[in-house]
UniProtKB/TrEMBL annotation:
<keyword id="KW-0238">DNA-binding</keyword>
<dbReference type="InterPro" id="IPR009057">
    <property type="entry name" value="Homeodomain-like_sf"/>
</dbReference>
<dbReference type="InterPro" id="IPR050624">
    <property type="entry name" value="HTH-type_Tx_Regulator"/>
</dbReference>
<dbReference type="Pfam" id="PF00440">
    <property type="entry name" value="TetR_N"/>
</dbReference>
<feature type="DNA-binding region" description="H-T-H motif">
    <location>
        <begin position="34"/>
        <end position="53"/>
    </location>
</feature>
<protein>
    <submittedName>
        <fullName>Transcriptional regulator, TetRNA family</fullName>
    </submittedName>
</protein>
<dbReference type="InterPro" id="IPR001647">
    <property type="entry name" value="HTH_TetR"/>
</dbReference>
<feature type="domain" description="HTH tetR-type">
    <location>
        <begin position="11"/>
        <end position="71"/>
    </location>
</feature>
<dbReference type="GO" id="GO:0003677">
    <property type="term" value="F:DNA binding"/>
</dbReference>
Length: 215
């Protein structure tokens, strides 16, 4: 985590350092990222940088914290919009992604770019506390009434599969901007498969529940 000295910097100086860091981490693999290039671009002395962060890893995980906060808030809002329906979430999220891409929203692009240039990197370890993939902030918002099983591990798996379907089509859309309509169809079909595997037959559905608790 950054030191208190970092947070006491003028906002313009903090933003300049963060923008320089994003530029480096989204164009160079993590192993090859240079702190020297970041501080030169930001116009910050090397000694000052180490008053703000312990090193490259500390800075990188601070950036990922911004990614986490961005997506957690977006997913919370979407889950509320769909009344906790986990399987309606990916389609709504994909449509929102397309709109934000047109408006030039940088965060999704930055996230996907980091994944692309760092194959095998598990960015999502920053999204929740091990051993869970599903963030604690989202679990209580998910309607589990029709799930075959309502314990945390099962809901976790459903969230993981749904999220991976979404991430896959978003990455493909970045690579092939003319295939958004096709990818939307692919996403719908994949989510339907996940949904069928996770839910009870309609006639067996019990009273509505959220986060494993009856409402």
């Amino acid at each position: 985590m950054p030191t208190g000295t970092f947070f006491r910097l003028p906002e313009e100086k903090r933003m300049r350092l963060m923008e320089s860091a994003w530029e480096e981490f989204t164009h160079i693999s993590y192993a090859d990222v240079s702190i020297n290039k970041i501080i030169q671009a930001a116009g910050i002395p090397r000694g000052s940088f180490y008053q703000y962060f312990d090193g490259k890893e500390d800075l990188f995980f601070y950036l990922l914290g911004d990614v986490r906060n961005h997506f957690i808030q977006a997913l919370k809002s979407l889950l509320l919009d769909v009344d906790g329906d986990l399987f309606s979430l990916p389609m709504l999220a994909y449509d929102q992604f397309l709109r934000r891409r047109e408006r030039g929203d940088l965060m999704p692009r930055r996230c996907i770019q980091i994944l692309r240039i760092n194959p095998g990197m598990d960015m999502f370890q920053t999204f929740s506390k091990p051993p869970f993939f599903l963030p604690d902030e989202l679990f209580p918002l998910i309607d589990t009434a029709q799930f075959r099983c309502r314990d945390r591990n099962f809901v976790e798996s459903a969230f993981f599969l749904s999220t991976m379907c979404l991430i896959s089509v978003i990455m493909d859309t970045f690579a092939h901007t003319d295939r958004a309509a096709l990818q939307r169809t692919v996403l719908r079909e994949r989510i339907e498969i996940v949904k069928r595997g996770c839910l009870l037959p309609c006639q067996e559905a019990p009273q509505q529940q959220q986060g494993g608790k009856q409402v």
